[in-house]
Amino acid sequence: MTAVVVTADRALVEGVARGPNAVLAEDGAIVLVGDPAAVLADTRAATARRIDWSRRAMVPGTINTHNHSFQSLLRGIGDDLPFLVWREQALYRYSPRLDADAMATAALFAFGEMLLHGVTTVCDFYYLNAQANDNAIATIEAARRLGMRIVLARCFYDWDGAPASYRETVPQAVANFEALAARYQDRQRFLTAVQPAPHSQHGASRAMIEAGAGCARDAGVPWHIHLAEEHYQVEQSLARFGARPLHAIAALDVELARMIAVHGCWFDDSERALLADRGAALAYCPGSNMFLGDGVTDLVDLVARGVRVGLGTDGGCSNNRVSVFDEMRTAALLQKVHRTDGQAISAETCFALGTRTAGEVLRLPIGRIVPGYRCDLVALDLDDPSLWPVQALEKNVVYALSPRAVTDVVVDGQEAVAARRLLHVPIDEIQARVAELTQDWGRA
Ligand SMILES: [Zn+2]
């Protein structure tokens, strides 16, 4: 049994700001939370390792429910272009060149930068599988090297308009998913999880979507799918399937209660009602939706209906930031301006979307500082002016926080970032790998 006690001068616990706080964890699971003197007096703390976050505030680690790690390599290369031009000249031009070693570089880069921004769990929606698992394994192993928690949302893709490296047959996708899950489905510490992800209505056939959802049912895990991101996708769904995106999916042999829809910018009232009715979830990426000019998901309505929603950054070339704290602020501002109502949504709600409810979306015991949950924590520098005055901590973390204030990160009771530095992979190594890999890449 490995025990650790983390103490901090302030904390946000269950959405409430507290003074001095301590967390005791055993084998990565939180077992006690409370006043430092009381926690340290517990017999289980006697031989525990101590992590002292003086002058810092402890908050739950943030959870990125939607990302494509390899896209960090394309950052800046296709910005400000129409989507189809970006896809042809940036995405389809460079992504088929990437081998497993390049995928490891991309993942170290994307996940390393996320850790420095306080992301403790990333869900990587992974579609460059090349009919095998080598690339996905390189991505998972990069997260393990960094000491980060990962959900590999393994894509199911068979649209023949995409490069061959994206595509599989249905039996290939099922067999590869099952092999990857057999190796990495960690049901003890949940450090690695594997979930199926039929790409979208355009990227996956009906048989492929049903196969992905079937694998989710068999494994007892959620499944992910991009839906209604851009308006033309609604028109396309109506033309091809005679129904709006969510209704077309609901007509298939799939369990909506396990579904995590990604984006949903153009879900109408009937689709939002259906999400709530069936207990489906949403990965919401406000920064990416704004960057690409996709549209505005009616988040306020979804939250009011009780739909589980988590925040995502999406890929590093459609945002172009990788911070969930930043998505909390972006979600709030976008919803306020969309409704021309400064009270449309609160900081506390947006904080939950990046922590507690994001854990509920991924169906993992993460995102809360309570016993039974994994010990994923972030320290924020109380001497950083972006958090002053400190008595408004919960508001300031969402609206004012500078990424400079993120000092330390613990994942599953283990330090991954200390004093603003990655502990397990030198940042110089990541920088050199990215520079070498992309040296002859140019803007599309
Ligand atoms: Zn995506």
Description:
This protein has 444 residues and is of the alpha/beta class. The chain is 37% helix and 23% strand. The chain has helices at residues 36-41, 83-94, 100-116, 134-146, 170-184, 206-219, 231-241, 245-250, 269-278, 286-291, 299-304, 324-338, 347-353, 356-362, 393-399, 427-437; strands at 3-13, 16-18, 21-26, 29-34, 49-60, 62-67, 119-126, 149-156, 192-198, 223-227, 259-263, 281-284, 308-311, 377-381, 406-411, 414-418, 421-422. The strands form three sheets. Strands 1, 2, 3, 4, 5, 14, 15, 16 and 17 form a nine-stranded mixed beta sheet that branches. The protein has a four-stranded parallel beta sheet with strand order 6-7-8-9, with helices on both faces. The chain has a four-stranded parallel beta sheet with strand order 10-11-12-13. The protein starts with a strand and ends in a 7-residue tail after the last helix. The model has no long low-confidence stretch (mean pLDDT 97).
Largest sheet: 9 strands, mixed
Q: Please report the number of helical segments.
A: 16
Low-confidence stretches: none
Helix content: 25-40%
Supply the helix-strand structural class.
alpha/beta
Bound molecules: zinc ion
Question: Mean pLDDT, nearest integer?
Answer: 97
**Integer-rounded radius of gyration:** 21 Å
Shape: globular
Number of strands: 17
Oligomerization state: single chain
Give the termini separation: 53 Å
Question: Which percent range describes the beta-strand content?
Answer: 15-25%
Topology of helices and strands:
Blueprint: E1 3-13, E2 16-18, E3 21-26, E4 29-34, H1 36-41, E5 49-60, E6 62-67, H2 83-94, H3 100-116, E7 119-126, H4 134-146, E8 149-156, H5 170-184, E9 192-198, H6 206-219, E10 223-227, H7 231-241, H8 245-250, E11 259-263, H9 269-278, E12 281-284, H10 286-291, H11 299-304, E13 308-311, H12 324-338, H13 347-353, H14 356-362, E14 377-381, H15 393-399, E15 406-411, E16 414-418, E17 421-422, H16 427-437
Parallel strand pairs: 1-5, 6-7, 7-8, 8-9, 10-11, 11-12, 12-13
Antiparallel strand pairs: 1-2, 1-3, 3-4, 5-14, 14-15, 15-16, 16-17
Helix pairs in contact: 3-4, 3-16, 5-6, 12-13, 13-15
